[in-house]
Automatic annotation (TrEMBL):
It is found in: Mitochondrion outer membrane. Belongs to the HesA/MoeB/ThiF family. GO terms for cellular component: mitochondrial outer membrane. This is THIF-type NAD/FAD binding fold domain-containing protein. CDD domains: YgdL_like. GO terms for molecular function: ATP binding; tRNA threonylcarbamoyladenosine dehydratase; ubiquitin-like modifier activating enzyme activity. It is a multi-pass membrane protein. Keywords: ATP-binding, Ligase, Membrane, Mitochondrion, Mitochondrion outer membrane, Nucleotide-binding, Transmembrane, Transmembrane helix.
């Protein structure tokens, strides 16, 4: 076996064997180290899990539903975000990074449009489902200054529709929740948070200029209380502040029926209808863009139900609300619809401020029709006066074109109260005038004491019959019309009387 001895004595073979053995030893050492580290990690993980009878640091749910952390990790993160936001607002944030974050908006709106948006000051009144989504969209798109106004706090029921609130935010003011979360997204945005209720008395302060003197470029109305909504829209109208109003997203489910148009066109929305009625009484009939839904209620669809009888038994219903005059019933809301409304609002504001071309549904202009109805009513009153022995020359009626539009659109929804038809409409007294209904106390003037809550919408053909049988022959409406028609008309007249009285 001389060849075996020759191989064993070969220097090259010895080096190869040594290398192989060294590699095996190294591999064994690495594998052993990894296995030891794995076992150590598993042991450490198991030891970190407390037993059921041991105290632990899992977050608990407090009495009102908010998560309370056992350590200050969340607080530390919030402090870091707030500190970063303060530095960013002072200019300690790279401009290149901001433009990179806003790159998609920049190429859409161009540099000039984005610059306008970044300098803009927008006021958001109402920071719930609609307002939070509008605010988040504006901040993410580069709006420079945002004033947030809302008196309310985040609740558990808010989480189905709020844009940024988490379980940990329950119980905190909505305005502060928005700022805290959005500062982590756009730290350079300037926020002015006001945890206050909007009202007519403080409108001038809440809608005042920014501390540098800049007036609001736009105001967003996301209020769900009619009294506050009307006060905000009236103030903006009188002070020429651009404003867009969100109508009701509650009980809505069809996003294809959400539109942006003039408030005079939003006839199918109950919140819009109530808002329009009160604004008309204040002299505002159009000129306010709104987001509204044309969706109608129907069988199987959600609707605001009457307050349960057991709630009435608790005492005054008004005392059940958070604040006086605020609703005490839960409004059915599909969480997606407030987001649709809010994003539409933000979209409109961004296009308006940046100057981007856009077209919406045109305002419904029916002034000529209202003028014609007013002229017919004037002629009808003159004929009735003459029939009852009063000289009609110079007779004046206390009704304007705006009054006609209000009655046709808001009280009778553009349809005859007699037949439900919607064409060739007219207005007429419901009952024959009694007593001396023409005021002659002012020399040279004859004033017809006609009241708006005595007028009924009907077609021209129905008016001719009504004039002959009721206003001239003196028949009672109960003798002329079916019981269902009389009840329907009387109900409308009572509603109008109650509404006008409560709005004074």
């Amino acid at each position: 076996m001389s060849w075996v001895s020759d191989i064993a004595g070969s220097h090259r073979v010895q080096l190869a064997v040594t290398a192989v053995l060294s590699g095996c030893l190294a591999a064994s050492a690495v594998i052993g180290l990894q296995e030891a580290r794995k076992q150590y990690n598993e042991y450490d993980l198991k030891e970190s899990i407390p037993g059921l009878d041991q105290p632990h640091h899992v977050e608990q749910i407090n009495d009102f539903g908010g998560a309370v952390p056992e350590d200050n990790a969340d607080a530390t993160e919030a402090d870091r975000s707030a500190a970063l936001a303060r530095r960013a607002r002072l200019g300690d944030y790279d401009e290149g990074l901001i433009l990179e974050q806003l790159a998609r908006n920049r190429v859409f709106l161009k540099d000039e449009g984005l610059a306008k948006l970044r300098k803009a000051f927008v006021v958001v009144v109402g920071c719930g489902g609609v307002g939070s989504h509008a605010t988040a969209a504006l901040a993410r798109s580069g709006c420079g200054k945002l004033r947030l106004i809302d008196f309310d706090q985040v609740t558990l029921s808010s989480l189905n529709r709020h844009a940024v609130a988490t379980l940990a935010d329950v119980g905190t003011p909505k305005v502060l929740c928005l700022r805290k979360r959005l500062e982590q997204v756009t730290p350079w945005t300037h926020f002015d948070c006001r945890n206050e209720l909007f009202s007519e008395q403080v409108a001038a302060t809440q809608l005042s200029a920014w501390k540098d003197g800049q007036k609001p470029d736009y105001v967003i109305d996301a209020i769900d209380n009619i009294e506050s909504k009307v006060a905000l829209l009236k103030y903006c109208h009188d002070n020429k502040l651009p404003v867009i109003s969100s109508m009701g997203a509650g009980c809505k489910s069809d996003p294809t029926r959400v539109f942006i148009g003039d408030i005079s066109a939003s006839t199918e929305d109950p919140l819009s209808r109530s808002t329009r009625r009160q604004l008309r009484l204040l002299g505002v009939k159009d000129g306010i863009p709104v987001v509204y839904s044309s969706e109608k209620t129907g069988p199987g669809k959600a609707q605001l139900l009457p307050l349960p009888e057991d709630e009435f038994q608790k005492g005054a219903v008004g005392e059940l609300g958070v604040l006086p005059e605020f609703r005490v019933r839960i409004l059915p809301v599909l969480g997606t619809m407030p987001a649709v409304f809010g994003l539409c609002v933000a979209n409109h504001v961004m296009l308006e401020i940046s100057g981007y071309p856009h077209e919406y549904l045109q305002s419904k202009s029916r002034d000529k029709m209202y003028d014609g109805i007013l002229a017919q009513l004037q002629g009808l009153e003159e004929r009735v006066a003459k029939h009852h022995g009063c000289d009609p020359v110079g007779l004046r009626i206390p009704v304007t074109t705006d009054d006609v539009g209000y009655l046709i659109e808001e009280t009778y929804h553009g349809r005859s109260a007699i037949s439900g038809l919607a064409s060739r409409l007219a207005l007429a007294r419901w009952r024959k005038p009694e007593g001396d209904w023409v005021d002659r106390t002012t020399p040279g003037q004859k004033a017809d004491e006609l009241r708006l809550d005595s007028l009924v919408c009907m077609t021209k053909d129905e008016m001719v019959r009504h004039e002959k049988e009721v206003l001239k022959e003196g028949k009672a409406p109960e003798e002329v019309y079916d019981k269902s028609v009389v009840e329907r008309v009387e109900r409308r007249l009572m509603e109008e009387t109650a509404f006008r009285y409560s709005s004074r």
